[in-house]
Design goal:
heterodimer, A: about 675 residues, alpha+beta, twelve-stranded antiparallel barrel, seven-stranded antiparallel beta sheet, B: about 160 residues, mainly alpha, three-stranded antiparallel beta sheet, 8 helices, 3 strands, about 50% helix, globular
Chain lengths: ~675, ~160
């Protein structure tokens, strides 16, 4: 059933044409080409000189052939060889010519293996990273050494000081997989992010900030969001590994982007960790093409884990897309690989908790302090008992910092005030840890899988239909809630086909490219706005024209009020539709929308209504919708829809029931 | 039809525009409020959204740059780089005399477990001098902190 979605996705993912347009002046590519030429020349020289003059090399090559090492799955893993084409030939996912020593190394595992063996004898340094070849490809070197039992007399090992200094500096004793929660405001982070953390042996739990992180990211410096999104989806950016202190990542995610972090400490053994770092070292100087959806941060980290533990088979499960939470689930599915989970709340999560845990009058004082409506030493504060005064300053500071990072206050006014608040707090004779929010009952990896297959049956204007709906990612407002952010929806590449039972026709019902709905409750502290954006193809009832397929793009903004789990929202929507069958071919519309999202246990209900006035002569289009959905465990849900709407003067009803399976 | 595609593309661009509220280049300063440490922190920082790096950070991946080698901080630079990168967190922790970032600072200064409470208290008591203005640098913070420790019976042995 899944394979069905491949063509549409491949079209988008490969996007050769779009990509070549964007890379017309792509300097990285040019640089690569020059490097390739250099390598071809160097490689040719190497292969002719090496094979003739060195009997031990000849012997090693002979033994490698006998043992079939070039076909070994681990060799393929270290070099990212994947089957491509119908004849079973392989090609490496790594495009960087600096990653191969043989001229055709990207396509030829055997030639590449032999070129590596030859290079291990060389005493000169690899030209790009200035290290001996044994050290530059230290993961390959150690694996081949193990397999072929190198004779240290005839193939002397290099010391690899640079690698060793790096390794000792990191001092890895434990590997932790870190998940940064989804960040709906950037196309590259919509589904979350993962990175690896390397913890020294015996490190205390409260010193983890000093660990190092290995991060894989696209190197993009793009101000145009659409270009960023398209290039990102089509592999237009080089992806690179980097190493940095973990505190940099905590600051970035927790504080600057307000994203919760989940740290999954893994039970990898010392020899596995060593393999992981050696392989990471090999990948350090090269870049891969970065695809937001598939060959992304999470996918490449799986490659590191597979290099660490040869028995792990993680990447093969993600042949089309790799959503970070799904990759975390794949890792945790390995028996005994998880040691412990630590939750690290975002600054805004801590602030929210702090606000909720102080009395209402302290809340109000803190808010006025932060906004500068109250001087830091105001008499109302002096009258408070020490504990509440401490609370007021703590909340005021955290709130002002939050506003400051969100650029909601003038930084030149905010900076001195933030300092004054901290000074005032330091003078209250109470020392304490700021209150920490409780760990959420359900972790992100414990939520439903992100792909969804839905089968529905229903009636549209008294005509019966059956509908099949496929959605690779991610979560909508009504999907089973545990483990996901409340009020956040991202539907990606949602594809629907409808079969009309009376006429026997089957047609494309809709293809939603992106559909984001973000409901953030607004209160006295968090003056958040809610927004939505979607575009794709859908069926639109048009007078005398039936239901033609039209392109439709919409966006809206408004406010949400929260009452526990119940969200009440109102927004102003705009929509643009384009299609041959529309009277004017293109029309634009605007109007209000309101909705109520509520839940009770596994049941969630969305009630919504909207009116849109369009630029053409259609009477205002309106719709009212009731959608209940009942979660059946973690991976199934039963949904229903009842809708009444009016398009081009035609009023009609739609009803359906559906079964949804997440996988 | 062509026009339709253009219009559709523009609207799509608008929609995605709202989807990306922040710019993708880095901010180039160690921390947000305080001056931080010029020349050290900025190399590592310029990062905002995950998955995307500003060009400034390209160099730190693998290779030599200032106080990091292949991403690993040099032995003698650990304290100053940590302080420069964590000024906001450190200020907040010092003001309440507690917190993870302050604890890690104690670790980096070699303060032993039994003396940490005294260290935390000293940082809190001297907060207004340690963070004497918004323009304070990491080096100022460390200097003032160490001067205060030198005057303290328990903590003077960690200075000098």
């Amino acid at each position: 059933m899944y394979r069905f979605m491949i063509p549409a996705f491949r079209l988008l993912a490969s996007g050769g044409i779009i990509r070549s347009i964007f890379q017309a002046d792509g300097t990285p590519n040019q640089r690569n080409r020059i490097r390739l030429i250099w390598f071809v020349a160097a490689g040719l020289l190497l292969s002719t000189t090496a094979a003739s003059a060195n009997p031990y090399l000849d012997e090693l090559i002979q033994r490698a052939r006998e043992q079939g090492l070039a076909e070994h799955s681990y060799w393929h893993r270290l070099l990212y060889y994947k089957e491509s084409g119908l004849l079973g030939e392989v090609r490496s996912e790594a495009e960087d010519p600096g990653f191969f020593l043989a001229p055709m190394g990207r396509l030829d595992p055997q030639a590449e293996l032999e070129a590596n063996l030859a290079a291990f004898f060389r005493v000169d340094a690899e030209p790009i990273t200035k290290q001996p070849f044994q050290c530059r490809f230290i993961g390959r070197y150690h694996w081949l050494k193990e397999q072929l039992d190198f004779d240290p007399e005839r193939l002397p090992p290099h010391a690899c000081e640079q690698f060793q200094t790096w390794y000792n500096g990191i001092n890895p004793g434990q590997v932790t997989l870190v998940f940064a929660a989804d960040y709906v405001n950037s196309p590259s982070s919509m589904f979350g992010h993962t990175l690896l953390r390397l913890d020294p042996p015996g490190q205390a739990e409260d010193s983890r900030l000093l660990s190092y992180a290995i991060n894989y990211a696209a190197n993009a410096d793009e101000s145009n969001s659409l270009v960023f999104a398209i290039k990102g989806l089509t592999g237009g950016y080089p992806g690179q590994f980097s190493v940095m202190p973990y505190y940099e990542k905590v600051k970035e995610y927790n504080d600057w982007e307000n994203r919760d972090l989940w740290e999954y400490q893994l039970t990898l053994e010392p020899d596995e960790i060593q393999r992981l770092l050696r392989h990471a070292w090999e990948l350090g100087p090269i870049s891969f093409d970065y695809y937001f959806l598939h060959e992304n941060c999470s996918f490449r980290l799986l490659g590191l884990l597979e290099a660490a533990r040869p028995g792990l088979n993680l990447t093969e499960r993600f042949d089309l897309w790799a959503i970070p939470t799904d990759t975390v689930r794949a890792v945790l599915a390995e028996e005994g690989l998880l040691r412990k989970v630590v939750y690290r709340p975002a600054a805004s999560t801590v602030l929210q908790h702090q606000v909720e845990s102080v009395p209402a009058e302290v809340q109000e004082l803190a808010r006025e302090l932060a906004l500068g409506k109250l001087p830091v030493n105001a008499s109302q504060l002096q009258k408070l008992p020490d504990f509440e005064r401490a609370q007021a300053y703590e909340v005021a500071y955290a709130y002002l910092y939050y506003l400051f990072l969100g650029r909601d206050v003038d930084p030149e006014l905010a900076k001195p005030r933030m300092r004054q608040l901290l000074v005032a707090r330091s003078r209250v004779p109470i020392s304490r840890e700021r209150p920490q929010p409780p760990v959420p009952a359900v972790r992100p990896d414990e939520g439903h899988d992100t792909a969804r297959i839905a089968l529905a049956g229903g009636q549209f204007d008294r005509q019966d239909f059956i509908e099949l709906r496929l959605r690779p990612a991610y979560h909508d407002l009504l999907d089973p809630a545990p483990g996901y952010k409340h009020g956040a929806q991202i539907n990606f590449l949602d594809l629907a086909f409808r079969h009309w039972t009376e006429t026997g026709n089957t047609q494309l019902e809709a293809l939603t490219l992106v559909d984001i709905f973000s409901l953030s409750p607004r209160d006295r502290f968090f003056r958040k706005t809610s927004w939505n954006a979607s575009f794709g193809f859908e069926r639109q009832v048009v007078k005398d024209e039936g239901r033609p397929l039209v392109f439709s793009a919409g966006s809206g903004g408004g406010y949400t009020l929260g009452f526990g789990d119940t969200l009440l929202y109102a927004s102003v929507q705009t929509r643009l539709q384009a299609g041959e069958k529309l009277p004017d071919h293109v029309r634009a519309g605007a109007g209000p929308q309101a909705g109520l999202l509520t839940g009770y246990g596994p049941l969630r209900v969305l009630l919504s209504a909207e009116v849109l006035w369009y630029s053409d002569d259609s009477s205002p289009q309106w719709a009212a919708r009731l959608e209940p959905r009942l979660a059946l465990g973690r991976q199934f849900a039963l949904g229903a829809l009842a809708e009444r709407r009016q398009d081009y003067g035609k009023e009609y009803n739609q009803f359906s029931v559906s079964l949804r399976w997440y996988r | 039809m062509k026009r339709i595609i253009v219009v559709a593309g523009l609207l799509g661009a608008l929609a995605m525009g709202t989807a990306q509220a922040r710019d993708n280049t880095g901010c180039g300063a160690g921390t947000m409020i305080w001056q931080g440490q010029k020349g050290i922190a900025p190399q590592v920082l310029a990062v905002t959204t995950n998955g995307t790096f500003g060009n400034q950070t390209f160099g730190i991946t693998f290779g030599t740059l200032g106080c990091t080698q292949d991403g690993v901080v040099g032995e003698g630079k650990k304290l100053s780089m940590y302080t420069g990168s964590n000024m906001d967190r450190l200020a907040q922790d010092m003001s309440v005399g507690h917190g993870e970032s302050l604890n890690v600072l104690a670790e980096l200064m070699g303060v032993e477990q039994q003396d940490k409470a005294a260290f935390f208290e000293l940082a809190k008591l001297n907060f207004s001098e340690i963070f004497s203005s918004e323009a304070v640098t990491a080096q100022d913070v460390l200097n003032t902190l160490q001067a205060a420790m030198a005057q303290d019976a328990t903590l003077s042995r960690y200075v000098g």
